[in-house]
Amino acid sequence: MVPARFTVAIGSMDILTLENVTHDFGSTRALDSLSIGVEAGELVCLLGPSGCGKTTALRIAAGLEPLQAGRVLLDGEVVADADQDTPPEARSVGLVFQDYALFPHLTVVDNVAFGLRKLPRRRRRERAMAVLRQVGMAELADAHPHMLSGGQQQRVAVARALAPRPRVMLMDEPFSGLDVTLRHQVRDETLHILKQTGTATLMVTHDPEEAMFMADRVVLMRGGRIVQMGTPAQLYAAPANEFVAAFFGDINRLHGVVRQGRVSTPLGELDAGRLPEGAPANVLVRPEAVRLHPVDGDAASGARTGRVLASRLLGRSSVVHLVLDNPADSGSIQADRAGPHVHARVPGRFLPPENTCVEIDIDPYQAFVFPAHEDAA
Ligand SMILES: Nc1ncnc2c1ncn2[C@@H]1O[C@H](COP(=O)(O)OP(=O)(O)OP(=O)(O)O)[C@@H](O)[C@H]1O
């Protein structure tokens, strides 16, 4: 029978399970009763700021860090608990780290074949070549690592980890050693390979965009605990608190007070949700939720307006810096009487000249109201 303290919400299909894992380094609590599961074929990203415990969780899953409390299961089989700690080589996990750590004296194909010692010699090379074909590196099978670019080395590292058909792939910041263009290309290829092979994967990243690009599910951590877990869309569109809302990039912070179920800010009014009448509220608005309308002549009466401080083209979108006009009837509690500074992000090229006036409204689905006392990012 499963002890009561382990009856956490872990799926029965999980390939990898961490249950109530707590881990201390001296007086530092790195993980605080962490429970996560990775289902068959699923890619889960551990995301969070530096020091939140991501790498420790991954190393415990791999068996590289001795378990102190909790359990680790692979395919439903306990590999670490109070009584046992199966070594990494006996766990059937594929490891990919930031530094690819290929053996410099071995060729590409021999690097990939290295983990296949259980197979007969001829089968080893066949299997290694098959995986190299999957990652598009078969033509360089006889090269040595120093002859490869960083991106090619990383593909070989992925092939080497996949070759023994591990039960789960564990990847720690696998793309962070690559420059931006290569990083995008290699992570795209890696996602395709992991999905084509149906390999369950737990990946660590501190980059929210990378997590959204790669993950079926994101586990956002802070201080050794999970703050929110869900699909990228759930975390982005329904953040549990200010920390989550702000973690996914630039955000405008405004303040207001609840009046008749609404919070009024210089950007517009929003539903106050469950906040009580008179409660101070923090309102977080994504820049892409700020919609701008050029004013030809005078602004419409009652319209929210702002003055353009600067407009910048960022490639696929433009960012417009604005100082908001602060209507006396807004009910807001801005300290800055000139009105707050906000960012609007508009698709494509939209560059209103400095000092011009624009009308503003907001997309309420990308604006979030939280109680003002809540712990901010
Ligand atoms: N070997 C160690 N000895 C002492 N403290 C450690 C050790 N490894 C990690 N820590 C501490 O444990 C906490 C969690 O570290 P961990 O490396 O897991 O975080 P992280 O989220 O992966 O951070 P980063 O993104 O910077 O790699 C941090 O406070 C860190 O300083």
From TrEMBL:
<dbReference type="GO" id="GO:0015408">
    <property type="term" value="F:ABC-type ferric iron transporter activity"/>
</dbReference>
<protein>
    <submittedName>
        <fullName>Iron(III) transport system ATP-binding protein</fullName>
    </submittedName>
</protein>
<dbReference type="InterPro" id="IPR050093">
    <property type="entry name" value="ABC_SmlMolc_Importer"/>
</dbReference>
<keyword id="KW-0472">Membrane</keyword>
<dbReference type="InterPro" id="IPR003439">
    <property type="entry name" value="ABC_transporter-like_ATP-bd"/>
</dbReference>
<keyword id="KW-0410">Iron transport</keyword>
<dbReference type="GO" id="GO:0015697">
    <property type="term" value="P:quaternary ammonium group transport"/>
</dbReference>
<dbReference type="GO" id="GO:0016020">
    <property type="term" value="C:membrane"/>
</dbReference>
<dbReference type="InterPro" id="IPR003593">
    <property type="entry name" value="AAA+_ATPase"/>
</dbReference>
<dbReference type="Pfam" id="PF00005">
    <property type="entry name" value="ABC_tran"/>
</dbReference>
<keyword id="KW-0547">Nucleotide-binding</keyword>
<dbReference type="InterPro" id="IPR008995">
    <property type="entry name" value="Mo/tungstate-bd_C_term_dom"/>
</dbReference>
<dbReference type="GO" id="GO:0016887">
    <property type="term" value="F:ATP hydrolysis activity"/>
</dbReference>
<keyword id="KW-0813">Transport</keyword>
<keyword id="KW-1003">Cell membrane</keyword>
<dbReference type="InterPro" id="IPR027417">
    <property type="entry name" value="P-loop_NTPase"/>
</dbReference>
<dbReference type="InterPro" id="IPR017871">
    <property type="entry name" value="ABC_transporter-like_CS"/>
</dbReference>
<dbReference type="InterPro" id="IPR015853">
    <property type="entry name" value="ABC_transpr_FbpC"/>
</dbReference>
<keyword id="KW-0406">Ion transport</keyword>
<keyword id="KW-0408">Iron</keyword>
<dbReference type="GO" id="GO:0005524">
    <property type="term" value="F:ATP binding"/>
</dbReference>
<feature type="domain" description="ABC transporter">
    <location>
        <begin position="16"/>
        <end position="248"/>
    </location>
</feature>
<keyword id="KW-0067">ATP-binding</keyword>
